[in-house]
Amino acid sequence: MLAPVLACIFTLSVPADVGDDRYQFIAGLAERGLQAEVVREARRFLEEHGGHGKADLARYRLATALFDLNRAEEARPHFTRLAKVRGFEFQSEVLFRHGQCELEAGEHDVATGAFERVLAGDGDYLRPAATFLLGESHFRAERFDQAEARYAATLRLEDAESYAADALHGMTWCAYRLGNHDQAIQRAAEFTRAHARDERVQELAFVTGESHLELDRPAPALVAYKQVSTGAFHAAAMRGAGFACAALDDHAGAVEYFGKVLELDGRGPYAPEAALHRGIHQLRLDQARAALESLELPIAGKGPEVQYWRGRSFAKLGDHQQALAAFEAGSGQRPDERLAQRLAIGRADALFELGRTDEAAAVYEAAGSDYALHAAAVAKLNDGEAAEAVRLAAPLANPAKDSEYRLEATLTVAEGQFALERYAAAEAAFAVVADQDQDAGRRARAISRLGWCRFLTDDPVGARAHFERVLKEFGQSAEAVEARFLAGRSAEDAGDAAAAAEHYRRYLGLESKPHAEEASLRLARFEDPAAAEARLARLIQEAPTSSFAPQARFDLAERQAARGEWQAARTNYAAFLAEHGGHELADGAAYDVHREGEGDGHRAALRGGRRAESSRR
User: Fold this and answer.
1) Confidence (pTM)
2) Phi, psi at residue 168, to the nearest 5°?
3) DSSP letter assigned to residue 236
C-alpha cells in the first residue's frame, strides 16, 4: 500500500507549468476581446518565457491583438517572424495578416508573396480575401494587368460577395491605367448600376470623365465630370471639366471650372495649373485684364508658360513694353523648344509693335525654324490675323522648300487667303493639300474648303462636286456633316431640285445637324404641298426662336394663299406680324393679311420676288 501513496505524493509535489498557465490566461483575454490586456500580457510572456513551447502562440496572440488595435506597424515584425516558422498551427492566418501589414507598409512585393502562400495553402475560408488583397498588392505595385486578373478571379469565387464591389472598383481603375478606356467606362457604369449607394460612384464618374477625355470625347467627359459634386475627386473632376470645355472651345466654361478648382483647393496640386488655364481662356474671351489677375496669382508662379501668357495679355492690352518684359523673363528660364519658339515670336511681335523693327527681324530670323514659323502662322491665324499668317507660312509652303511642315503650311496659307476672301489664291493652295497630303483630316478639310471657294464665287456646280467628293471619300469625317448640307445648297443653286431635296433629306436624318432649320425650310420648297406645309408648321412649332422661323411662317401663309385657303393664310400672316413685325417681309405680310381673293397677279409677283431674295440668303 505504500507505493501507491508515495506515487500520489510525488505527483502532487511536481510544480505546475507556469508558462502554460500564463498562455492560457492570454488566450482567455483574447477570447473576451480584451486586446490591450493581451498585448501587455503577451509581451510579458515573451520576455519571461521566450523559449517556452507556447512562445510562438503567444507571439501570434500579441501580433493579432496589435493588428486589431490598428497598430499594424508594431504587429508587422511579429507576423514576419511567425511566417518563417514551419508547421505553425495558424500558418494561413499568419501569412494573411503578414500580407496585410506589408501592404500597409508599402512593401508590395513582400505582401504579394504572403498572399500567394495563403492561396497555396489550405486556408480556404481566407481565399476570397487573399485573392482580392493579392490584386491590391499588384495594383499598388502598378502591375495593373496582374491586379486585374486577381480582381476578376475574386468575382468568380462563390463566397466572395462581400468583395464584389471592391473588386469591380479595382478592375475599373485597372482598365483605365492600362489605357482600356472604353472598358473602364463600361465597368464604371456597371458599378454604378450594381452599387448605386456606394460612395465610390462619384470617384468612378471621375474615371469615366478621364477616359472619355483620353478618347477625345470631351462632351460625354464633361457630363461625367459634372456628376462629381463632393469627395476627394471633386477638385480633380473640376479640373477635368475645365479641359473638356477647352476641347469644346467653350472658353467661358473653362474659366468657370478652372475657377472652381481654385475655390475648392486654392493651394492644392491642381491650383497652379488652374490659375494658368483660367488666365488662358479669359484671354481667349478677350478678358485680358481678368487674365492678368489669374496669371499673377501667387499660386500661378512665374514659370515660362505663365510668362508667355502674361506677355500675350499685356500685348492684348496694348502694353507692349510689359509684354516684352514677360516674354524675355520666360525666355530666360530655359523653356522647352516649342515654348522657347513661342516666347521668341512673342518677343519679336512686341519689338515690332514698339517700332524696333530691326531687332524684331533679328529675333524672327533667330527663331525661324520651320516649326517656329509654322507655329507662328497658326497662332496668327487663330488670333484672326490672316495676312500675318500668310506672310509667315508662305516660305514654308513653297514647293521648293524641303520641310516636313510644307503641306501644313500650305493649308495655313490657304486658310489665311480664304479668311481674306482671296478665293482664287486659297483654292490653288487647298488643291495642293487635297492632291498631295497623306493626312486624311487635312485632305478632307482642304476638299471641303475647295467647295466653299466655288460656292462663294457663284459656281454651284463646281461647289457641289467638291462637297460630294468629301461625302464619298471622307463620309465619317468632321467635314461630312457640313458637306451634306452644302451639297444640297449647291444642287439647289444649280437648279437640280431632285438632288437638292435628297441631300437635305439625308442631312436631316443625321444625328448632329446644326443647320436643321434651314435645311427643313429649303426642303419644303421641293415637296408636295401637304408635306411642305406640314414641315413648315413643324419648324415653326419646334423652333419658334430660330432665325428661319419668320421665313417658314411667311412661306406657309404664302402656300395657303396660293391655293385659296385664305382663312388659314390670314391667320399665319397675322401671326407673322405679331411675332416678327420688324422683319423685312413684314410689309408684304401686312398687305396680304388684308387681301382676300384680290390682286392675285400682284401677290404672285410679290411672292416670286420674296422667294428669289430668300434663295440668295
Assistant:
1) 0.58
2) -65, -40
3) H
